[in-house]
Amino acid sequence: MNIKAVTSSFRQQGIQFLADPQWIIPSIIAPFMFTVVALYMYSGGGELDSPIVLTAVLGGGVLGMWGNMLFASGFTITYDRYNGTIEPIMMTPTHLIDVITGRSIWNALIGLLNAILVFIFAELIFGVGVSVSEPLFFFPMLALTLFSLASIGLMLSALFVLTRASFVVMTILEFPIYVFSGALFPISVLGKLEPISYILAPSWGVDAMKTAAVAGHESITAFGIYFDVAVMILLMVIYIAAAYILFGVIERNIRNSGTLVRY
Amino acid sequence: MTFVSERVRVIKASCILSIHDTFTTIRPSLWLLQIIVPSVFAMFFFYMIAGVANADQDFVVIGNAVQSIGMTTIYAVSGIPGVQKHIGTMTPLAISPSGLFSIFLGMSLFSIFAGFISIAVSLAFATFVFGVSMASVNLLSVLVVILLTAFSIGGISMMIGSIGIYMRTSAIIANVATYVGLVLCGVNFPVSVLPGWAQTIAYCHPLTYAVQATRDAVNGCTVTELASPIMMMIVLGMIFIILSYLAFRFFEKLSRKKGRMDVF
To answer: Is B38 helix (H, G, I), strand (E, B) or coil?
Structure first.
């Protein structure tokens, strides 16, 4: 890995974000509205008990992180296509994945901000009194979950290099993670579809976060939070390895086919 | 007469061009997938929450089937000026004698039609995947309600899109409008549980009438029995189309004056 390229692209992504920060709004709106809907549905118009509120708010935060990661990963490549900068990037000796990794780390940090904003808005508007039972565990779990989402984003970026219809792909991929991560409802209710959640690192992250935050939360397995963390890290390593392989193959293919700048 | 036929010609040409544009960029199968997958997953997502919350799952599934138009039509239509700015065609369009409203109306028609398809396909999934009973459905009523939903939501989308002529983007406002509809319009829970001020906003939004009318049509109500929500959708749709025409003229003039046609 070319660390200099990673840090430079991280910095460049930061500068671009700060030049037009309004784009954080869409990735906050959707998860916040989903949280509001979930709160209304769980309450049935009446009072809410605190574990449900906490579950909904934490879930909303995870949705926020995913929304941000997905759209930021997709637009990263799309804008290079639009702006005509993807070919110069490909001509440099730096691998594309190093550039994308730097950008993904920045997007992950913004995703964290996104989640925190969802928590704050939920607190300010509903006065839900969110309190985390194990804060020492919770915040590392939040960060790990975020990086698990970032590793999926990195893998998907490879696909976004291939297609000029990245917006379509982003739209298609947004909801499946909302559903299978178990962010707003337990994955046990998915029935036959539950195994899909097991191959998604964020599902384990969400479980670990809820175990750390919500007293009496029923974990996916009986092995506890450390097992969740181990599986999450293992899956993240697999995603990152897959991203490296995919980027290598795709870079070679698009150089040969000359289809990179089609949009 | 010449003026009207000229406008119709511009609208038709813009519509045909936008269809060609869409399918040059993406394959029809992918386009259809883009409509179906988010709608089905959104239904599934809220269906599951409703299950855990012991809420009425049929209520939620039909609500989200109608709400799917938000993701299809509001985004696509309101994003048209932004796309034109991005690809550098806004200024050439603005200096043509056709007028931006007619051009963008033509470009919007296909996305409004896509909204119609989106609701129809989502209702089919509601039946075959989520088991919503269509035993007493009144098909004519459903058809009329979906058509009017597409028309009225198309009006709102055009109004939001007009902002994109002056501002850098209208995507953020479109995003807010889509998701506000999810909360306020009785998609997942009855409007009656909302605070009074939110209910007032809800009843100014055609989606509220569309969602309720669709549920009633699925339960067998005839077009005559749905006269009240149907009238409200027609009236609100007309109001939004007129407002969007005025907004297009206003933002076009403002944008020319301030030189913001190419700002994105």
So the answer is: helix
Q: Is A127 on the interface with B (CB under 8 A)?
A: no
Q: Does the beta-carbon distance from B86 to A171 stay under 8 Å? A: no
d(CA A245, CA A241): 6
- What mean pLDDT, rounded, does chain A reach? 83
Give the Cα separation of B66 and B119 in Å (integer): 5
Distance CA A75, CA B134 (A): 41
Say if A263 falls within a structural domain. Answer: no
Q: How much is the pLDDT for A263?
A: 58
Q: Are B49 and A185 in contact (CB under 8 A)?
A: yes
Q: How far is CA A51 from the centre of its chain?
A: 24
Residues of chain B with pLDDT under 70: 1, 264
Alpha helices in chain B (DSSP H): 2-25, 28-52, 57-69, 75-78, 80-86, 90-94, 100-128, 139-166, 171-184, 196-202, 206-218, 227-258
ipTM over 0.95: no
Q: Using the 8-state DSSP alphabet, how is residue A185 labeled? A: S
Chain A: closest CA distance from residue B250 (Å): 24
Domain membership flag for residue A135: yes
- Residue A242 distance to chain B (closest CA, Å): 24
Range of the domain at A244: 3-257
Question: B49, A168: Cβ pair inside 8 Å?
Answer: no
Number of domains into which chain A is organized: 1
A residues 25-84 lying closer than 8 A (beta carbon) to B: 25-26, 29-30, 33-34, 36-38, 40-42, 44-45, 82
Chain A nearest CA to B198, separation (Å): 13
Q: Cα dist. B215→A61, A63, B21 in Å?
A: 32, 29, 35
Residues of A in contact with B189 (CB under 8 A): 37, 40-41, 44-45
Query: What mean pLDDT comes out for the span A115-130?
Result: 75
Residue B257: Cβ within 10 Å count: 9
Do residue B188 and residue A36 have CB atoms under 8 angstroms apart? no
Nearest to A184 among B26, B41, B49 (CB): B49
Amino acid at A56: A
Q: Per-residue pLDDT averaged across A44-65, rounded?
A: 76
Burial of A88 (0-12, 13-18, 19+ CB in 10 A): exposed
Question: How far lies B45's CA from each of A60, A187, B121, in Å?
Answer: 13, 11, 17
Q: Is A225 part of a structural domain of the chain?
A: yes
From B204's Cα to the closest Cα of chain A, the distance in A is 19
Q: A76 CB contacts (<8 Å, ≥6 apart)?
A: A13, A100, A103, A107, A157, A160
Task: State whether A41 and B53 contact (CB < 8 Å).
Answer: yes
Whether residue A262 is contained in a domain is answered as no
Nearest CA among A29, A133, A146, A251 for reference residue B180: A29
